[in-house]
Amino acid sequence: MSDQMSNAQPQFLTVGEGEAAREIAMLVRPAQAGNGAPALVWLSGYRSDMSGTKAVELDGLAAELGLACIRLDYSGHGLSGGSFGDGTISRWLEEALAVIRHVAPDRIVLVGSSMGGWIALRLAQELARQGGEGPELAGPKLAGMVLIAPAPDFTSELIEPNLKAKERKSLAERGYFEERSQYSPEPNIYTRALIEDGRKNRVLDGIIETGCPVHILQGMKDADVPHAHAMKLVEHLPADDVVLTFIRDGDHRLSRPGDIALLLSAVKGIIRSSTNRQMPD
């Protein structure tokens, strides 16, 4: 499996125009000939990239099953161009949508981790909205979603209510504030633009209709996204077939071997159900 990974060369797609143009890196594994199953699309979390453990394991599953797999780095992340400080949900959503449209699979399963779960839910909305505007904008059909410690609306739900006075002051005066990261020596940086744009991309203020099965994996010892947040998300998905799996001792990353096994099993379950739904009665 590792040889297949190391031979993959990133491709680059220019997204945006003029000063907003940035080169987005992607790793695209083609499906084996004749494999009509949906393509897997990996959507990373905040400050994560397409070479992380879960992303690589997902690509390994695609290799094993002969599936297409699409991974990308948002601007300001990994191998992509652009400044991290310019990043917003709208900007990273635009990049994910552009990469998916560029590769143009017929059907996709979105696998989103943390912030990638928010991007996945917004992608579902955008694909449905744009598809309604005409066949040329229809894009791929959504066959399913696997969301790992999803963090929809994290800027307004998890950050803004907990801002300290000095952080509010820093946002007002400098346009950003810093927070120590558990995962990196570099601090997390949250900009005013990210927070303001986050309000425009809220999904937890109405019914979310993905039109596909959704499997959520959530650790109960997640210090970043409380497990109550996953339960709240389920309440906003009343029309969909939703499975919520709690991992009692799971943290936010869910990257241990047992966690990875659950992730791959969830993806295989979605693939199976999407294949069965396509078969005639």
UniProtKB/TrEMBL annotation:
Protein name in UniProt: Palmitoyl-protein thioesterase ABHD10, mitochondrial
Top enzyme class: hydrolase
Enzyme Commission number(s) from the entry: 3.1.1.93, 3.1.2.22
SUPFAM superfamilies: alpha/beta-Hydrolases (SSF53474)
Species, as recorded: Rhizobium esperanzae
Record keywords: Hydrolase, Transit peptide
UniProt domain AB hydrolase-1: residue ranges: 40-257
UniProt key word Transit peptide: yes
Catalytic activity: mycophenolic acid O-acyl-beta-D-glucuronide + H2O = mycophenolate + D-glucuronate + H(+); S-hexadecanoyl-L-cysteinyl-[protein] + H2O = L-cysteinyl-[protein] + hexadecanoate + H(+)
Keyword Signal among UniProt keywords: no
Function as written in the Swiss-Prot or TrEMBL entry: Acts as an acyl-protein thioesterase that hydrolyzes fatty acids from acylated residues in proteins. Regulates the mitochondrial S-depalmitoylation of the nucleophilic active site residue of peroxiredoxin-5/PRDX5, a key antioxidant protein, therefore modulating mitochondrial antioxidant ability. Also catalyzes the deglucuronidation of mycophenolic acid acyl-glucuronide, an active metabolite of the immunosuppressant drug mycophenolate.
GO MF, one example: mycophenolic acid acyl-glucuronide esterase activity
